[in-house]
User: Fold this.
Amino acid sequence: MPSQTFILTFVCDDMPGIVANVTNHIFKSGGNILESHQYNDIETNRFFMRTAYRVADPAGSTALEAGFEAIAAHYGMDYRIRARSQRPKVLILASKADHCLADLLYRRRIGELDMDVTGIISNHPRDTYASLDFGDIPFHHLPTIPGNKAAQESQIWALFQSTGSELAVLARYMQILSDDLAAKFSGRCINIHHSFLPGFKGAKPYHQAHQRGVKVIGATAHYVTADLDEGPIIEQDVERISHSDTPDDLIRKGRDIERRVLARAIRFHLDGRVLVNGPRTVVFRD
Amino acid sequence: MPSQTFILTFVCDDMPGIVANVTNHIFKSGGNILESHQYNDIETNRFFMRTAYRVADPAGSTALEAGFEAIAAHYGMDYRIRARSQRPKVLILASKADHCLADLLYRRRIGELDMDVTGIISNHPRDTYASLDFGDIPFHHLPTIPGNKAAQESQIWALFQSTGSELAVLARYMQILSDDLAAKFSGRCINIHHSFLPGFKGAKPYHQAHQRGVKVIGATAHYVTADLDEGPIIEQDVERISHSDTPDDLIRKGRDIERRVLARAIRFHLDGRVLVNGPRTVVFRD
Amino acid sequence: MPSQTFILTFVCDDMPGIVANVTNHIFKSGGNILESHQYNDIETNRFFMRTAYRVADPAGSTALEAGFEAIAAHYGMDYRIRARSQRPKVLILASKADHCLADLLYRRRIGELDMDVTGIISNHPRDTYASLDFGDIPFHHLPTIPGNKAAQESQIWALFQSTGSELAVLARYMQILSDDLAAKFSGRCINIHHSFLPGFKGAKPYHQAHQRGVKVIGATAHYVTADLDEGPIIEQDVERISHSDTPDDLIRKGRDIERRVLARAIRFHLDGRVLVNGPRTVVFRD
Amino acid sequence: MPSQTFILTFVCDDMPGIVANVTNHIFKSGGNILESHQYNDIETNRFFMRTAYRVADPAGSTALEAGFEAIAAHYGMDYRIRARSQRPKVLILASKADHCLADLLYRRRIGELDMDVTGIISNHPRDTYASLDFGDIPFHHLPTIPGNKAAQESQIWALFQSTGSELAVLARYMQILSDDLAAKFSGRCINIHHSFLPGFKGAKPYHQAHQRGVKVIGATAHYVTADLDEGPIIEQDVERISHSDTPDDLIRKGRDIERRVLARAIRFHLDGRVLVNGPRTVVFRD
Assistant:
């Protein structure tokens, strides 16, 4: 029987012995640790861990997971064990600017982002993405018109649920989610904001950046919360600019930053490398 | 007679023929252009230029500068011609954290920053910098106590004037300049703020950054204006951080960014490479 | 009549008065300079300039160009004047890894890279790029088999000429051009090498980088010459890596660097911003 | 009794159960893990770990270390346990360019690099560093003259031994160590090479970089081995440059990169974060 790789992540209050007990359990259950990261937040006394382990046979993994429940209960852990082979289901939302969408579909196609895209939602029609091959991914045109926000969001939420998606990606989706929808998605929706937060929140951040005269621009991938552009930051990156860059130049240069920042954030999230820590994240990068 | 290098910088409304007229004048006056940069701000229709030229003999340079007045008047230029050999006079202010001060003194000593430091002012006493060799640079201990701000600032201004300084550098000088003093310095005072503006203005920016959970920190050198941390940005740089960085780690990592950002900004300014453009700057980097 | 924008680039021996004469001529001919860069290589005494100017009417631009011939002859200039509206013709070559190809086609589609792609050549068949929409760009499958290198290269050259292409892009095209073909392309062929040259020339650079244990990887876009990976470098960029990155991780992380480096290099080249300076380039970046 | 922090590092062949046994032992001995990193090199099947733990009382730490011997023997570990309070002894060597030396002394002075500098050796006399306050660190002028290399190196080695130093830092020390001395230092000598290795080994790397026309320069900190500039790389960093940078500009810009790269490498090494892995290093960064 082929061995399987599992990703265990958990958060709990810190105390002596956690790692010893967890790794001991994995070892006793026939697991072999491939990679392990931990972090103690001394301010809050919370402990974060991510361990990738391999088990030779399915019986072993079942026993491992069953036995882990007691440890998790003992420490009051918020935990998750996931098989690497289980492809995550992701729902992507986009608007007019499709550079992030095109980039994510490419990475999926070549196997770099191993995910099952359950659907592509846009407030723009299919022909906006005429050159993009969606394969057999269903496309949903959910236009927004004055007064229909709640109805349109209901459709988004319905699709998220009916497809069994675990992550929604706002890939330069330009509609602001209502507090209600943001709350529903809590921790399961990643947005790419085209600025280096906390600077330039809201609309037209490149124009704001140009106005302010910054010498570096950036992009930020974060979990969506009710507060616009305030959610826990997952990943950021930057690029130097100069006085000669117009807002259009910033938009152009920004596309590259947005693409790679969003892709990294999604990759980290799907690989269980991101753990929310209040208003922040713990990211066990690879 | 040895040739001399001059730096000409000017700003004026843009119109056809400026470069032709200016370069023609330099050529006719026996000047040879070594380096030249220009920028047209299409939003404001303002034109910015910096030209470094060499003139074989002093008579030629005098004629060149005399003749330039008419061109400058014709175009309504705000201009300056400075001989490279003329060492700028710089007044440095510091507080407890002396990494920027130490760094600037080192660069000056090895000839990297060619400036005449007219004085070092601090609200802390001399022994705060026991290990630093100030050479023959006068040190002025100007402590701040409740109620003496205006008096203390008068001493700063008096020193700036009496030493004939052209630039004041707030090298992690932690006292906030009053609107009055900021206005007096206008365009002649560079501050290093230990954050990547416009984020985390004001006090304890590293603690703010830690709280916000950004994944990148930075530092910003800017001209001081009445609005705290709002003046035209000259230079910025960043460094990646992670969830495991405590505020003290950010302070430590930030020191390196602050040192190099401030040094670059000062170098650009002293070499006539920075031209203020409203709330922003044009920086002809080298 | 609508105004047109032109890009003038030239190289010549440096001497006083060049800029004055050139800008004066542009001005007298009714041109208005939009952007201008120059560089004096003091080692070789060569002068490089790029000026973008606008002329109100076609008659003016014709006169400007006609009159420029005398100036060019006087200074022994190697020069070029090109209308910005004239879309450059570019031939792209690719192999199995299509990330650069896909990226260039995307940028062209959204108008970021304004070029006329005259053809896509690959040593792999069309279905290798099943998901990529080539639109009406002709695809040419030119397989390489032992013994047919010269014949296959003749076809490449024939296509380059018959399409009137001015630039060939080796977008992770993995066949090494013969000295003969490299010489024919001289200065008109850009390659992306997946390492930070001069390190890790030749095959499997990511494996070489992994073996060497570098902490930073990069990609290099350069003009092709007879010496493999030795041609004048146009653009480079890097990314931090760690001991935990396997060669496959480097390949993955490297794709993003390769894409942006190649795209920037092509953009600079097509916009007349790159001038070859012996074994190096002068790049007037935007 | 106050608690103490210890750093345990070890390398051994990988096999299931190592982490469980090690962390279990720490736990049972009353230790509390503060930070832990591990890495499995799947190519060589070698396992690397660094764990920082705190023990409430000295008796506990003695027992922990005594008990660890059996575990280490069982796994064939190459290991080390060091108390954080034990300040490492470091010998610094410098030559004419003193920017790295000045920078390290500054970081030590403000407590950023917690080390006991046992001496400063230079092939140049003390007055080369007139402005630098060495405090009570002994300075040794060991000039090199034709024919005295072996004798001069004997003095270096004698000082290294007599001072009980554990690390020698070549802070832009420009004499090439003989194979003999390099071998003696093995793993205990860090050099800063002023290029982004593997490019531009040997002399005048900035001139080499300028000649090659790279668009990015860097610096590399590595362990010294018999092969010049070939030892395991610890840390690297880069900076963008352009065609207008002369070799002197590269030297100037390079100083900043060298300073921070060397300082980081030393910091990592002294904090037990660097483990040699054949020709490479594993670096558990903070």
